[in-house]
Amino acid sequence: MKKEIIISGFGGQGVLSMGKILAYSGLMEDKEVTWMPAYGPEQRGGTANVTVIVSDTRISSPILSKYDIAVVLNQPSLDKFESKIKPGGILIYDGFGIINPPKRTDIEIYRIDAMDKAAAMKNAKVFNMIILGGLLQVAPVVSENGVEKALFKTLPERHHALIPLNMQAIAEGKKIIQKQ
Q: What is the pTM of this model?
């Protein structure tokens, strides 16, 4: 199994941390991983993306031009990455950030209303974990157990009390993602 994933959105949406947690989850499960962030000088509010590869075998290069999975959280990201998904690949988008929905017919398209669910949970900071839950529902590249271990590894100890909330957000994301 090898999945080449791009996650993209505005800075401040948790794009880079979602990628980091996904990569650490792979490490916790003895998988080969790469994590390659990219963002402009305006990290908050500017565009940000991260490429993550999770594989059972050695990864030859972290540089990609086509992806198995794209997670896009805003219109500029959809415009940039929709055409770069391999035929038969997966596109996941947050309904709140997209004005013109995806048009391709040779990929699987999923919508997740994570912004609405984060508001319902009364915590905007779990938005990215809801998205991650949706991703893991349609493409289980790592386990929830691996994610929980990764959260303990990546979050500062003072935030460990928030891990159950993050795991609840992942479970909610798994429930609300819908194929289009």
A: 0.93
